[in-house]
Design a protein that fits this description.
This protein has 335 residues and is α/β, with parallel strands linked by helices. Helices cover 40% and strands 8% of the residues.
C-alpha cells in the first residue's frame, strides 16, 4: 500500500489513497466534525461511590477462578481497571457500588478464563476472510464503526465464531479515540449468495448478548440494523427478553443511518453511504493488527510511565493528556 501504516490513517490521507482504488485499510482517526458526547460531571455521592470502588479494586490480591486460573492481578489486568472502566460498571449497575465490584471481579475472571488477551489474530483470521466483520470509519460522535455482515458467513457454528466476535470487539475498543469509550455496531442482514438464513442460533445469540451486556457494559453507543428478514425478526423477538431497556433504546432498525454516520464515513451497503471501501483480507487484516498493536504498545508505555496505577485515566493512556492520575488533578468529572 502507498500509505505508511506507521503513521495515523487520517480521513484525508485515506481519501487520498482512494485515487488508486477503493480504501482497503481501517481509518484510524475520526473526522474533525465528530463531537464526542461528554459524560456528566459526577455528583458528590457518585464521586464517593467511585472512590470506594477504586479503593476496593486496589485491595484485590488475586482474580478468583473455578478453572484453576486464579492468581494475582497481572499488569494488563491492572491497566484494564482504568478510571473509566470502574465508572462504566458503576453506571451499568445504577451506582450500586457493591454490585459494580461483583461484576468487575466477574469480568476479570471471565477475561482470564476465556483467554481474551490470548486470542490470536492468526487463530481467528479464517473467520474474517470474507469480511463478515469490518471496522472502518466513525459515527458522528467519533465512535468506531464496527460492521457485522452475517450474509458473508463462511464457517460452521463453533466456539471460534464467538471468539472472533470478542476479538473484533477488542480491536474496536482499541480504536476508540480519546474522549470516546463506545463503539457503533452496524449490522446488515442481507443474505449472501451461499446463505439464505443469516440469523445465528438462539444459543449462540444469547451467548454473544450475554458477553456484550455482562462484560462490555456501557460500550455500545448505537446499533444500526438493516435488511432484517422475517427469520431474523423472529430471532430478535426470542432474545428481546434478555436485552436490557437501555440497550434496546440504542438499537435502530431500517432507519436513515446517515442520521448517525456521515455519508463519507458510511459504507454504501447502508443507503446514503459514500465511503468507497473494498474488503481485501490480505491487506486489511495485517493493517488492522499493525494499527491496534501499535496503539496497545503506546498505551502500555504510558501506563508504565504514569506509575502503573489502577484507576488511570484512559485519556492519558490514549495520549490526550500529558499526565496520569498520579500527577494530574482530574477533578470530579467522569471524562
Amino acid at each position: 500500500m502507498a500509505t505508511a501504516l506507521s503513521e495515523p490513517v487520517s480521513v484525508q490521507s485515506a481519501l487520498d489513497e482512494k485515487r488508486n482504488g477503493p480504501l482497503s485499510i481501517p481509518l484510524e482517526t475520526p473526522p474533525t466534525s465528530s463531537t464526542p458526547v461528554a459524560n456528566p460531571v459526577l455528583t458528590s455521592q457518585q464521586q464517593s461511590k467511585y472512590d470506594w470502588l477504586l479503593e476496593r479494586a486496589k485491595s484485590w490480591t488475586e482474580v478468583p477462578s473455578t478453572k484453576e486460573k486464579n492468581g494475582p492481578l497481572t499488569d494488563s489486568e491492572r491497566m484494564w481497571l482504568s478510571r473509566e472502566c470502574l465508572l462504566r460498571y458503576l453506571r451499568a449497575t445504577k451506582w450500586h457500588e457493591q454490585e459494580a465490584e461483583k461484576r468487575l471481579l466477574g469480568t476479570l475472571t471471565w477475561r482470564r478464563e476465556y483467554g481474551v488477551e490470548n486470542l490470536a489474530a492468526d487463530y481467528v483470521s479464517p473467520e474474517n476472510e470474507t469480511g463478515k466483520q469490518v471496522i472502518v470509519g466513525f459515527d458522528k460522535h467519533g465512535r468506531p464503526c464496527h460492521y457485522l455482515n452475517p450474509g458473508r458467513q463462511n464457517t460452521e457454528v463453533s466456539p471460534r465464531q464467538v471468539e472472533h466476535m470478542v476479538y473484533m470487539l477488542e480491536q474496536s475498543v482499541e480504536l476508540t479515540p480519546p474522549q470516546q469509550e463506545k463503539v457503533c455496531l452496524l449490522i446488515d442482514f442481507k443474505t449472501g449468495a451461499k446463505r439464505t438464513n443469516t440469523a445465528p442460533g438462539i444459543g449462540q445469540g444469547r451467548e454473544v448478548l450475554n458477553i456484550l451486556q455482562t462484560h462490555y457494559p456501557e460500550r455500545l453507543g448505537r446499533a444500526l440494523i438493516i435488511n432484517v428478514p422475517w427469520v431474523v425478526w423472529g430471532f430478535f423477538k426470542l432474545i428481546t427478553p434478555f436485552i436490557d431497556p437501555l440497550t434496546k433504546e440504542k438499537i435502530k432498525f431500517n432507519e436513515d443511518m446517515t442520521q448517525y454516520v456521515e455519508p463519507e464515513q458510511l459504507l454504501p451497503q447502508f443507503p446514503g453511504g459514500k465511503l468507497d471501501f473494498e474488503y481485501n483480507h490480505s491487506v486489511y487484516w495485517p493493517a488492522l493488527q499493525k494499527i491496534t498493536n501499535e496503539r496497545r504498545a503506546k498505551r502500555i508505555q504510558r501506563w508504565e510511565a504514569g506509575g502503573k496505577h489502577i484507576g488511570e485515566s484512559e485519556d492519558y493512556l490514549k495520549g490526550l493528556t500529558p499526565h496520569g492520575v498520579a500527577t494530574a488533578n482530574t477533578g470530579p468529572s467522569e471524562s
